[in-house]
Design goal:
Radius of gyration: 18 Å
Distance between the termini: 63 Å
Number of domains: 1
Shape: globular
Helix content: over 70%
Number of strands: 0
Order of helices and strands: HHHHHHH
Number of helices: 7
Low-confidence stretches: none
Strand content: under 5%
Mean pLDDT: 86
């Protein structure tokens, strides 16, 4: 029971860090917060592995550490260095921080309601963490829609991917490690492509503000 409590507490920390990523003013800060979230995700996988006795989850934890806590932040920091000083400038969000907090709270509340209707034996003890993992999809979508900074929008995708990662671990802890490796590899390639596109956009447009892309320039 104590181990499941640890899993649910770590799940709560995941949603807190996701909210901080959305509220962060610069991509640099978002990168550090995402790296912190990834470390919490690794700890959650280890705690769940200890609780369920699933050795596969320890492999998941190692892979998540390499891909999410090291490679993704490294890729984003490399893109920030390529962009230069403009990457340090804050781009205003389309909504205020207060509205963002309310949206995330509503999304989390709705996911708790949805999870209460799930009767799977594997989900009974981890419903709070499962609600959080489902809410990550909507929080990531909120980040993509509301953030004008192109690099911040990339983290919206990363938050959605983290949510799907945790959901799979909670519902199928015995899934082969190869499944997790496949998911992580897809995520890495997606982040690489999006980072390259962001760097190219900045090179052409001279801005990371998505609003500057609404008008075609010939």
């Amino acid at each position: 029971m104590t181990s499941y409590l640890a899993v649910n507490i770590l799940g709560g920390l995941l949603i807190v860090t996701s909210l901080l990523v959305v509220l962060s003013k610069t991509p640099q800060r978002a990168t550090l917060l995402y790296s912190l979230q990834s470390m919490i995700l690794v700890a959650l996988l280890v705690a769940l592995g200890v609780t369920t006795g699933s050795r596969e989850l320890f492999t998941w934890a190692v892979t998540a550490f390499i891909t999410k806590a090291v490679l993704v932040p490294g890729i984003m920091l490399f893109a920030l260095r390529k962009i230069g000083a403009d990457a340090k400038q804050a781009v205003p969000s389309a909504i205020s921080p207060v509205v963002a907090i309310i949206l995330v709270a509503v999304e989390l509340f709705l996911c708790f309601i949805a999870v209460n209707g799930i009767g799977l034996p594997t989900a009974v003890e981890v419903k709070p963490a499962l609600a959080v993992s489902l809410a990550h999809f909507f929080v990531g979508l909120t980040c993509i829609i509301t953030q004008r900074n192109i690099l911040k929008q990339v983290f919206g995708y990363c938050l959605m991917e983290n949510g799907s990662h945790v959901t799979l671990a909670l519902l199928a802890p015995e899934a082969p490690g190869l499944v997790e490796i496949g998911i992580a590899t897809d995520a890495i390639f997606a982040v690489v492509i999006m980072a390259i596109v962001a760097v190219r956009i900045h090179k052409v447009v001279g801005s990371l503000d998505a609003d500057d892309l609404r008008e075609l320039k010939g």
